[in-house]
Amino acid sequence: MWWVDQGRNLPCCHRATDEELEAEPELFDCDTCEVARTWAAVDPVNVEAWDIYHRLGGRYAQTLGLGAYLLEALTEDWDGATRADMVARLEIIMSELDPPKTVSING
């Protein structure tokens, strides 16, 4: 998965702090940004899945346990099949970013 292997480590103004933008503005040119180019090529449904994933995984939502409520609110106008498809997409993202931990009985 591109985001896991490369995207997380590339400079992007969407993730940069104000200090980083001020100190090294040449690193954050959207015309040459690999992150921006990659996102432009992603299917819109997958872009929406990433957006929902980040909203559900945000610190505030996590601290208050708002995941189920937030997912319901973000998809309230969707039919069951569309919601199920989105949950499947969210599972794929989660399995790549935070794979299940394996436990060995033998240590």
Order of helices and strands: HHHHHHH
The stretches of 5 or more residues where confidence is low (pLDDT under 50) are: none
Helix content: 55-70%
What kind of sheet is the major sheet?
A: none
| Overall pLDDT | 86
Gross morphology:
globular
Distance between the termini: 30 Å
Q: Would you tell me the structural class of the helices and strands?
A: mainly alpha
User: How many helices does DSSP assign?
Assistant: 7
Radius of gyration: 17 Å
Explain briefly what this protein structure is.
It contains 7 helices and no strands. The chain has helices at residues 2-5, 18-23, 34-40, 44-56, 59-64, 67-74, 80-97.
Features of the shown structure:
7 helices; single chain; mainly alpha; 58% helix; 2 domains; 107 residues
Describe the fold and architecture.
With 107 residues, the chain is mainly alpha-helical. It folds into 2 domains: 1-41, no CATH class; 43-99, no CATH class. It has 7 helices and no strands. The longest helix is centred in the last third of the chain and has 18 residues, at 80-97. The radius of gyration is 17 Å and the shape is globular. The relative contact order is 0.10. The mean pLDDT is 86.
Present the secondary structure layout.
Elements: H1 2-5, H2 18-23, H3 34-40, H4 44-56, H5 59-64, H6 67-74, H7 80-97
